[in-house]
Specification:
Length: 245
Amino acid sequence: MLNKPIQIIILCFITLLPISAKEQIIIPTDDWPPFRITQNNTYSGIDFDLWKELAKRLNTQTEFKYYPWARSLANMKNGTVDMMSGIAIKKERQKYIKYSSVPYYSCSPVFYTQKGLGKTIKNYKDLKPHLIGYVNNSIYFKKFDNDKTLKKRAVTNEKQLLKMLALKRIKVIIGTDCQADYEIKKSGFQNMVEKTDYRPAKKLDLYIAISKKSAFINRMDEINQALKDIIHEGKIKEFASKYYK
C-alpha cells in the first residue's frame, strides 16, 4: 500500500494531465461567396455553416487556413491539410483525394459578358473570337475545360473576373451561377454585365473532399453518413437561405 505523501503526488499528477483534445480537421479555404466569405479574419458562408455542423456530428474541431485555390489543392496533395469543400470531381484529383459519396450543392456553369452583348453569343461556336476569363484550376464542363482552341485567361477568383468584366477589361468570362449571380448582385454590377444566350446544359456538383494522406480518410464512412443526414434534414437549404435573400 502506498504511503500518503506518494498518493497525494499521484493524485496531483493525474489532476494536471491535459483533458483529451478533440481531433482537429485542418481545412484550406479561399474567398468564394456565398459559400466561403472571409472578412476581417472572420469566416461565414454556406461551407462554414456546413463545416460547423459536420464537426459537431463527428465530435471534432476545425482549423481554417487561407490559401488561393491552386495552393489548397497542392496542400491536399501533399497532405498538409485534411479536407476541403466546394470541389468538383476531376479524374486527376482522384489520385490524391477521395470525394464524399454525395454532393451537397449543385451549380451551373454560365458565360457572362458586358451588358448588351449577351445575345451575340448564342452557341458554343460564338465563343471562338473572344478571350474568355476563368478561374485557374476550376472545373466548368468537359468540352470547355479540354478545349485548347479557345483563347483563355486564368485569374485567381471569380470576384476578380467580374470586376474585369464590369470595367471592360475583358468581354467574356465563365463562372458558376450560384457564386457569380450572388457576387453580381452584391457588387452592384447588374447594369454592367449579363448572361449570354448560350447556356451549357451542364451541372456542377460540389463535394467534400478528403486528402488520401489525412488520418480522416479512415473515417470516410462516418463522414459520408453525417453529410447525408445533414442534406436529408434540409440543413443545406437552411444554410443557403441566409445568404440568398
